[in-house]
């Protein structure tokens, strides 16, 4: 018989915080570079840079405290149990590894806002360079790296901007759970994001990368070391998507309170559920593709080199097999937000709850069958075009269902025009334009004409910024009072909405016209005849940026100058997260709540409160 | 002790442990679903590049698969690792059989990693010899990397079998882990068929 190993009470004694992480990451990078130089089979620099980033990330995570658990296990020491959420309400908990989903939500929010600032500055630099048609402000050699940095940073952000802050903070509250299923995974999904952003930004030191967010070979194979930042940074985001997906899905499947049946699940949770399925299954394909690209760049394999048995179409297929579900990873939580918020302010039950859920799943399912529409102009087999054209057009049906559910809820409602509601209505307007222009682009002849033009660029900005970011703003004005305990100024909020709505449409609608006039995207120069149009767009973009600054100003003004405490339920909403006190207690609920009614039973006489909370803040009735 | 309120049992310590076990089981299956997509990307690369045979360079310079026999040895070791641990994990973690079989599985696991690692350094073809060498290297490296981490986790399970060890205190996660090993072994079978027999 093998004698059982004795379990030691020893602990790792390194102080775990981000400072330790950074102090370990810096030498870790140089160790990785050294090892890459030592063992690099082909291009020492690429091997070294990639290994350097990987070592730096692992050691950063070790410094933050992520390796304690696996190392304790491997050394046979007593494993530190997951402790109760931190009762310490001090600000310090936001600057260290926390396993409290509410702290992680706030950590995500702040990080994403900082990244959004950098991505937005990148957009302003792009628009500034387009004030003139001859690339005299930004040389062509710098323009593409600028596009690449802006696009990938924004993709990082939009992958996590709703699921990260709001999903992590709210899902347990909305389903009646006292924690997440896997707090360590949840924390990991956050703590890989800052290294991903730093590594991506470090590409500037290597001259950036010229491929945009799609990373097409052979350009990505030939690019300098900036491309290595793309590979490792995007790889870390893939890790975040998988870990977040496992955690969210397991939480929603396994931790729903008694009585929280699938048909009582809030629509926001359905949005997170469907997007988590996509993230969980799509991101591994990206990880595999990035691994292939890294091997091509380091040990000279030839996955994507046609001259040596590879194919650049392999990348295009793998990338878009991830990339098209990815755009629905952005938008499904936004749909969830809209269908969640609208009934609360329409003061009506959600019209067609089950239909709305079917719509979300319809979008999620169809998103796997459309990726080749990105290859319409890349030499796709002609016989495949009709199928992918049809499958892409079909997506408009479940999307239309979601619109129908929302509009049906608004029909004959006495709408309470709060700031979150304004952003919801803005979303509907913008996404309608984005969606309809998408139907045009799904059509092969139109796509062949417009694919490389600003029409396509305007389309996806209407869906992502006009859709997801407007939904984000709706969520921020709606839920931040619960998350931060402070109300945001509604006056500044209204000014922010109108400024952002007008500036957004003034910026991006003319770009449809620019596209129809054949202005190519990703090119630093353009026809001088379009200079007036471009200047209009650039000035509008400055106003759009200013509207975002106004939002930041509202946060600072409301939190630090006015500091008006938020009521537990300022919107008189029925859903569960509003039935707990503000600030939310460490364990969310005094005891596991028992759900007895749905969250959208507004205007129904004698509607039951949503849950039996056992003496916490009173639950809202039919209202 | 459970407290009865509003007609529902509030979870006590036992219920929390059962809940934790269920979450780990659900999480394991979700993780494996993600893994299927990861390896499917490699299989897609295999079939895609093999079918295209661009520039007649699927197997340039007559690059032939490494020894089928040696590959079979690695595969059998991986299967033994998974099977041994699976049988052990069906027993109580306090049982003699579990304590016997998990270290044996660990030895098989370490052997798998060493044998596969040795093969990776002695492929018999260059990495630049076309599509097949690329796919072989990438697919095998991806599998080996995961097998190394899985074996390390298996080692931690063995080391946590003391009276207050995590394996003893949280029995059912150790049982769920068996599915990860079985899954990787199954992936190994598919990879073997593709890389040694179909290629």
Detailed description of the structure:
The complex is a heterodimer of chains A (623) and B (199). Chain A is mainly alpha-helical and 623 residues long. Chain A has two domains: 18-74, no CATH class; 98-562, Cytochrome C Oxidase, Chain A (Up-down Bundle). Chain A has 20 helices and two strands. Chain A has helices at residues 18-39, 44-64, 68-74, 101-129, 140-160, 163-175, 183-191, 193-201, 219-222, 226-254, 267-298, 312-346, 353-366, 385-394, 396-410, 419-442, 444-450, 454-484, 490-516, 531-562, and strands spanning 594-595, 611-612. In chain A, strands 1-2 form a two-stranded antiparallel ribbon. In chain A, 57% of the residues are buried. Chain B has a single domain, classed as Up-down Bundle (Four Helix Bundle (Hemerythrin (Met), subunit A)), CATH 1.20.120. Chain B has helices at 13-52, 68-89, 96-121, 131-159, 166-169, 171-198, and strands at 4-5, 8-9. Chain B is elongated. Residues 1-7 of chain B have low confidence and may be disordered. The chains are: A mainly alpha (623), B mainly alpha (199). The interface between A and B is large, with 61 and 65 residues.
């Amino acid at each position: 018989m093998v004698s059982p190993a004795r379990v030691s009470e020893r602990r790792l004694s390194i102080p775990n915080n981000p400072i330790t992480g950074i102090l370990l990451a810096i030498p870790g990078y140089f160790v990785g570079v050294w090892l890459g130089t030592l063992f690099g089979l082909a291009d020492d620099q690429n091997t070294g840079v990639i290994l350097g980033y990987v070592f730096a990330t692992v050691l950063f995570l070790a410094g933050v405290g992520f390796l304690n658990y696996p190392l304790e296990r491997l050394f046979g020491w007593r494993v530190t149990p997951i402790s109760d959420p931190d009762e310490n309400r001090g600000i310090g908990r936001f600057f260290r590894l926390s396993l409290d989903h509410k702290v992680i939500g706030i950590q995500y929010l702040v990080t994403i806002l900082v990244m959004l600032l950098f991505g937005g500055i990148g957009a302003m630099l792009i628009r500034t360079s387009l004030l003139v048609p001859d690339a005299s402000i930004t040389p062509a050699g710098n323009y593409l790296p600028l596009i690449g940095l802006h696009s990938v940073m924004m993709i990082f952000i939009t992958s996590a901007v709703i699921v990260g802050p709001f999903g992590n903070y709210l899902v347990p509250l909305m389903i009646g759970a006292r924690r997440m299923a896997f707090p360590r995974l949840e924390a990991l999904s956050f703590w890989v994001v800052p290294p991903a952003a730093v590594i991506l930004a470090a590409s500037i030191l290597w001259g950036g990368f010229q491929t945009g967010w799609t990373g097409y070979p052979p350009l990505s194979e030939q690019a300098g070391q900036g491309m290595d930042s793309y590979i490792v940074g995007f790889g870390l985001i893939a890790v975040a998507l998988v870990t977040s997906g496992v955690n969210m899905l397991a939480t929603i499947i396994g931790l729903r309170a008694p009585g929280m049946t699938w048909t009582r699940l809030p629509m926001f949770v359905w949005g997170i559920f469907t997007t988590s399925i996509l993230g969980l299954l799509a991101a591994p394909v990206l990880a595999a593709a990035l691994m292939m690209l890294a091997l091509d760049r380091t040990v000279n394999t030839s996955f994507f080199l046609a001259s040596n048995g590879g194919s650049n179409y392999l990348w295009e297929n793998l990338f878009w097999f991830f990339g098209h579900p990815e755009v629905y990873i952005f938008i499904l939580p936004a749909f969830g937000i809209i269908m969640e918020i609208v009934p609360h302010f329409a003061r009506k039950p959600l019209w067609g709850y089950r239909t709305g859920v079917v719509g979300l799943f319809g979008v999620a399912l169809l998103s796997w069958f459309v990726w080749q529409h990105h290859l319409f102009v890349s030499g796709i087999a002609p016989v495949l075009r009709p199928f992918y054209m049809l499958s892409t057009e079909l997506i408009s049906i479940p999307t239309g269902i979601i619109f129908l559910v929302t509009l049906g809820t608004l029909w004959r409602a006495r709408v309470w025009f709060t700031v979150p509601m304004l952003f919801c209505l803005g979303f509907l307007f913008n996404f309608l334009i984005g969606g309809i222009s998408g139907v045009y682009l799904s059509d092969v002849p139109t796509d062949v004409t417009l694919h490389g033009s600003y029409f396509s660029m305007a389309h996806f900005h209407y869906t992502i910024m006009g859709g997801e970011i407007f939904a984000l703003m709706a969520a921020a004005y709606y839920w931040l009072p619960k998350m931060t305990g402070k109300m945001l100024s509604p006056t500044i909020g209204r000014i922010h909405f109108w400024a952002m709505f007008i500036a957004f449409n003034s910026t991006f609608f003319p770009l449809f016209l620019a596209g129809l006039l054949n202005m190519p995207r990703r090119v630093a120069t353009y026809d001088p005849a379009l200079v007036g149009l471009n200047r209009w767009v650039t000035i509008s973009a400055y106003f759009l940026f200013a509207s975002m600054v106004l939002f930041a100003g509202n946060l600072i003004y409301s939190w630090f100058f006015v500091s008006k405490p938020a009521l537990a339920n300022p919107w008189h909403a029925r859903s569960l997260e509003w039935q707990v006190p503000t600030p939310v207690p460490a364990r969310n609920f005094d005891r596991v709540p028992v759900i007895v009614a749905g969250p959208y039973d507004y205007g129904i006489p004698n509607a039951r409160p949503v849950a039996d909370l056992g003496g916490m803040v009173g639950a809202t009735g039919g209202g | 002790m459970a407290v009865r309120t509003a007609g529902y049992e509030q979870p006590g310590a036992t219920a929390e442990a059962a809940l934790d076990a269920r979450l780990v089981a659900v999480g394991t299956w979700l993780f494996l679903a993600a893994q299927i997509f990861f390896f499917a990307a490699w299989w897609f690369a295999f079939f895609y590049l093999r079918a295209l045979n661009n520039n007649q360079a699927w197997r340039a310079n007559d690059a032939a698969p490494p020894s089928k026999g040696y590959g079979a040895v690695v595969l059998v070791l991986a299967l033994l690792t998974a099977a041994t641990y699976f049988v052990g994990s069906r027993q109580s973690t306090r049982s003699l059989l579990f304590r016997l079989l998990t270290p044996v599985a660990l030895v098989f696991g370490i052997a798998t990693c060493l044998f596969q690692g040795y093969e990776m350094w002695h492929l018999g073809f260059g990495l630049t010899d076309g599509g097949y060498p690329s796919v072989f290297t990438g697919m095998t490296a991806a599998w080996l990397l995961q097998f190394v981490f899985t074996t390390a986790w298996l080692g931690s399970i063995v080391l946590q079998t003391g009276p207050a060890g995590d394996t003893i205190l949280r029995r059912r996660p150790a049982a769920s882990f068996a599915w990860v090993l079985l899954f990787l072994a199954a992936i190994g079978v598919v990879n073997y068929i593709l890389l040694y027999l179909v290629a």
